[in-house]
Amino acid sequence: MDAKGWEHSDFRLTTELKAAEQAQALCNNEIDAMVYFMGHPNDAVKQATTSCETTLVGVDDKTIKR
What is d(CA 52, CA 45) in angstroms, rounded to the nearest whole number? Predict the structure, then answer.
């Protein structure tokens, strides 16, 4: 968020969830998106992509890479 100049106030709601809670919250429509930095492959991402309809979005942005 810092790299993009985003503030929590730019969003209706931001929250922090434990890795184990993120996929379930996404599948339960409690959150619209999750950002998770991890190594690949990863069980939390596998759970989110097999338990409900999801779309993975790659991050290929000069600001983020910096």
Answer: 11
8 Å CB contact between 41 and 35: no
The CA radius of gyration of the chain, in Å to the nearest whole number, is 13
Domains defined for the chain, CATH in brackets: 8-65 (3.40.190.10)
Task: Return d(Cα 1, Cα 29) in angstroms, integer.
Answer: 23
19 phi and psi, to 5 degrees?
-55, -40
Its pTM stands at: 0.68
Handedness of CA 10, 14, 16, 20 (dihedral sign): negative
pLDDT digits (tens, 9 = 90+) for 45-55: 888 888 888 88
Structure tokens at 41: 């492959």
Output the six-digit token pair for 55. Answer: 């779309």
